[in-house]
Design a protein that fits this description.
By secondary structure, the chain is an alpha/beta fold. It has 7 helices and 12 strands. A 10-stranded mixed sheet has the order 6-1-2-3-7-8-9-10-12-11, sandwiched between helices.
């Protein structure tokens, strides 16, 4: 089995059709940062990922994430995305998984069946898309026995239950402070020149740390599922990093 459909139905964000596909089972992911983890892609079921981003329909799977960029009307009457700072390259994983889904490459499993399959795997929630888009009971039934887990959500205000197994994705110091008050551990993206806040450590799998380990071995980003003293921070990275501006009032390096 190369992968399966974990969920197919309305988004918890806006009710539009989405699909959550688990990949990397028979053929482990070759992602050099995460290592061979099973990857969960959360996608619009009825829109190519590129189309969804260029029309704003990706809100169904990404919610309030600032890294989505903004949609602008072109003189031709079409729309296009501008300023997207997301590290995910749509033409790679999201496109390939969506096209495989549309071809019928993946069959559905119940959450109980998924729980059995995933117990021997470390799982990355949201290789693309926010776990908050998928109903809570799907996660509760499917991921309770995984060997390891990483997860991130920008929807921490709306879905506080995600603190159990997701990091609150934060882009400002104020957001981190707010998320901590709600009981989350945090994963904060920094612009170059921003320093770490007290209680933060740099991502051990990041370029700035010399890729000292991989996510499958580290697994600090599992929310409150694993006790850890430090929150995690990383410099903006990926093809969209140039669009990530340091927030006003952030702490600068001397």
């Amino acid at each position: 089995m190369q992968g399966f459909i974990l969920y197919e139905g309305p988004s918890e964000i806006d009710g539009k059709p989405i699909v959550a596909v688990v990949t990397g089972l028979g053929r482990p992911s070759n992602n050099t940062k995460t290592g061979p983890m099973a990857q969960v892609y959360i996608l619009r079921a009825d829109r190519h990922p590129m189309e969804a981003v260029n029309t704003g329909d990706d809100v169904s799977i990404c919610g309030s994430c600032r890294h989505r960029g903004s949609v602008e009307m072109l003189p031709s009457g079409k729309t296009a995305n501008r300023g997207r700072s997301c590290y995910v390259t749509l033409l790679h994983g999201p496109r390939m998984v969506w096209e495989g889904y549309r071809r019928g490459l993946y069959g559905p499993l119940t959450p109980a069946q998924a729980r059995v399959v995933l117990r021997t795997h470390s799982v990355r929630l949201g290789a693309y898309g926010d776990p908050g888009a998928v109903p809570q009971d799907i996660w509760a039934k499917a991921i309770g026995r995984t060997r390891g887990l990483t997860g991130y959500t920008h929807l921490w205000r709306r879905f506080p239950y995600l603190a159990q197994f997701c990091m609150a994705s934060c882009d400002t110091e104020a957001e981190r402070t707010e998320a901590k008050a709600l009981g989350f551990r945090t994963f904060r993206v920094r612009a170059r020149g921003e320093r770490l806040m007290p209680g933060e450590g740099q991502c051990p799998a990041s370029n700035e740390m010399g890729k000292a380990t991989r996510c499958d071995a580290c697994q600090l980003c599992s929310g409150n599922r694993r006790p850890a003293k430090a929150d995690i921070s990383i410099l903006a990275h990926g093809t969209g990093a140039k669009h990530f501006a340091p927030p006003q009032g952030s702490l600068k390096l001397n």
